[in-house]
Design goal:
Elements: E1 4-5, E2 29-30, E3 35-38, E4 41-48, E5 52-56, E6 68-76, E7 79-91, E8 99-104, H1 112-124, E9 127-130, E10 133-136, H2 153-186, E11 187-195, E12 197-198, E13 201-204, E14 209-214, E15 223-229, E16 234-238, E17 244-247, E18 256-257, E19 262-267, E20 273-279, H3 281-289, E21 292-297, E22 302-304, E23 306-309, E24 324-329, E25 343-349, H4 355-367
Antiparallel strand pairs: 1-2, 3-4, 3-6, 4-5, 5-8, 6-7, 7-8, 9-10, 11-25, 12-20, 13-19, 14-15, 14-18, 15-16, 17-19, 20-24, 21-22, 21-25, 23-24
């Protein structure tokens, strides 16, 4: 049975204790068979700890009492283990007493790990004493992990479904990210919305003043509106054609207008659908660079349009330094695709592949 002892030795002051330890008996001595060799002399071991060893025997004459190289030797069955370390030699008891204390100079040196393993194994009972030899009684084979059980059909199905969901989610996220990147790179939207209207001639104010009379049901040659000009004259405008009238924003009695202000649109049966809006200088630059203009309706339909810049006077509410008036012409469209009054957004599409390259590819494919 393992026995822990603290041998009797002379009392030492705290200055003689190994650095890093609080109490002299912090590491108790363990009685186990070992021997210590000092410059060729073999001393029998009596007890051992991780900080010092107690031995008995004769040390070599004229040996240094500080910083001696010590070999702790453990004799197992069939082999021997030796640990080399530096220790101070300290006499225990009277001068004729053969007992010595080997105080380790550096208890945390490289010998600490194997020494601690030997002491712990001896405490656990894996190392036992047999005729002054040490024998190992612990397990001789490493423990093997039990093989995992085969998954059931339900487990296989759940794993497959989980992998399928992860793959579908990944594909969906990639598709969404690709679509966002594609839209940001290819399309450029104008800030102002577009209201679809019907094409036709626009009657504008011929002078600055105030509208005193309007007639939305005017026929050909009838007075459609009258303006009390700032000059004092009363100006009346007659209907130039037998067509319908679409009043604009400033067409009402009492409205104060400037010269050139659009008042009404004259719409005939043979006039198609178009619209007018204001575009930014960046949009005008895209028109010049050859980008394709499109109208994206609220229902998701996309219609190609032709954009024409209009020169208008500043007093008539036309182009300014920031926005430019433009006319949008829709051609070759079905009446069911768009109706007058629909709201849309004007966008410009940049072609990733140049038209010349597309035409070249078509020529090659046609030749094949």
């Amino acid at each position: 049975m393992t026995e822990l002892t603290s041998p009797q030795r002379a009392t030492h002051s705290e200055e003689n204790l190994t650095g890093g330890f609080v109490y002299e008996s912090e590491h108790p001595q363990l009685q186990m068979p070992f021997s210590a060799r000092i410059t060729g002399r073999r001393l029998e071991g009596k007890s051992l700890s991780v900080t010092e060893a107690h031995v008995s025997g004769l040390i070599p004459p004229n040996s240094n009492l500080e910083g001696n190289t010590i070999a702790l030797q453990f004799d197992f069955e069939g082999f021997t283990l030796s640990l080399f370390l530096l220790a101070d030699i300290e006499k225990i008891g009277d001068s004729d007493n053969p007992d010595y204390c080997l105080r380790f100079c550096d208890p945390s040196a490289s010998h600490l790990a194997p020494l601690r393993y030997i002491l712990n194994s001896h405490l656990a009972g894996d190392l036992v004493t047999m005729d002054r030899f040490l024998g190992y009684t612990g397990p001789t084979k490493a423990k093997h992990k039990t093989p995992p059980t085969a998954p059931t059909k339900m487990q296989k199905f759940s794993r497959g479904l989980r992998k399928l969901c992860i793959a579908a989610s990944s594909v969906g996220l990639i598709a969404i990210a690709s679509n966002v990147i594609h839209d940001r790179f290819v399309f450029s939207y104008e800030p102002r919305p577009v209201v679809i209207g019907q094409g036709g001639e626009i009657l504008r104010a011929t002078s600055a003043g105030q509208i005193t009379y309007t007639n939305n049901q005017a026929g050909q040659s009838d007075v459609i509106y009258s303006i009390s000009a700032n000059s004092g004259d009363l100006l009346s405008v007659r209907m130039p054609c037998d067509c319908d009238i679409q009043p604009l924003a400033d067409y009402y009695e009492g409205a104060t207008i400037l010269a050139g202000t659009p008042l009404v649109r004259l719409v005939s049966d043979d006039v198609g659908i178009d619209a007018q809006t204001f575009i930014s200088p960046e949009g005008a630059a895209r028109i010049i660079s050859g980008d394709t203009a499109e109208l994206k309706l609220a229902n998701g339909n996309v219609l190609p349009v032709e954009v024409t810049l209009i020169e208008q006077s500043l007093g008539a509410g036309g182009q300014t330094d920031e926005m430019m008036a433009a006319k949008l012409t829709l051609s070759d469209i079905d009446e069911t695709q768009v109706q007058v009054g629909d709201i849309a957004r004007l966008r410009f599409r940049r072609d990733i592949v140049p038209d010349a390259l597309v035409n070249r590819i078509k020529e090659i494919s046609n030749g094949i």
